[in-house]
Specification:
It is a single chain. With 179 residues, the protein is mainly beta. It has a domain of 116 residues: Sandwich (Immunoglobulin-like). It is 6% helix and 30% strand. It has one helix and eight strands, in the order E-E-E-E-E-E-E-E-H. A five-stranded mixed beta sheet has the order 6-7-3-2-8, with no helix packed on it. Strands 1-5-4 form a three-stranded mixed beta sheet, with no helix packed on it. It is elongated. About 13% of the residues have low confidence.
């Protein structure tokens, strides 16, 4: 049994309207979750008795009363609505590097990616473009406008390289005695 309190690994991602936090400790049972304004505090323990605690000064205010915890995972996943719909440049208000806070690249969405999706009208850039079904690449002009005709390639018989020349037989070498 450990009596010292440890700091949990916290993974974070964001969308324009939410902050997504994952407390990456297996089977952590929360005894305290306090999220209000720009303050985030968590306290909990695992079945083996290890205690975990972390506090963060969030970049901007959040709606702490509307926090949702996602069920069905071994980790604690929180969806925290932001007070204002905006992209944060970082998770914390101060610009201090915290070794226990990492970006959750599995959930991360960049602001410019969302804008591109909105400009395209959907998230599939190639929807409606039929590249592979029945496409005739010869009609596309080849590389740099060259008209490429695969039938214009030389036959193997017409190849002028020395690759097909016969290899000479090995000569016998007589062994010299070293007496």
């Amino acid at each position: 049994m450990s009596t010292a309190t440890k700091t949990p690994l916290i993974l974070w991602a964001q969308h324009k309207t939410n902050v997504l936090l994952t407390i990456d400790i297996d089977e952590l049972k929360l005894s305290k979750l306090d999220i209000s304004g720009t303050d985030f505090h968590i306290l909990g323990s695992t079945p083996d008795g290890t205690s975990y605690e972390a506090s963060l000064p969030l970049f901007a205010a959040v709606k702490g009363s509307e926090v949702r915890q996602l069920k069905g995972t071994r980790h604690i996943e929180l969806v925290i609505p932001k007070e204002a719909e905006e992209w944060w440049p970082r998770l914390c208000s101060d610009n201090v590097k915290r070794h226990f806070v990492k970006v959750d690249f599995n959930k991360w969405v960049d602001e410019d990616e969302i804008e591109e999706e909105l400009n395209l009208g959907n998230s599939d850039m190639f929807q409606g473009m039929d590249f592979m079904n029945g496409a005739n690449f010869g009609d596309m002009g080849g590389m740099g406008g060259m008209n490429f005709d695969p039938n214009s390639l030389p036959d193997d018989d017409e190849d002028e390289s020395d690759e097909n020349d016969e290899i000479p037989d090995l000569e016998e070498v007589k062994e010299q005695s070293t007496a």
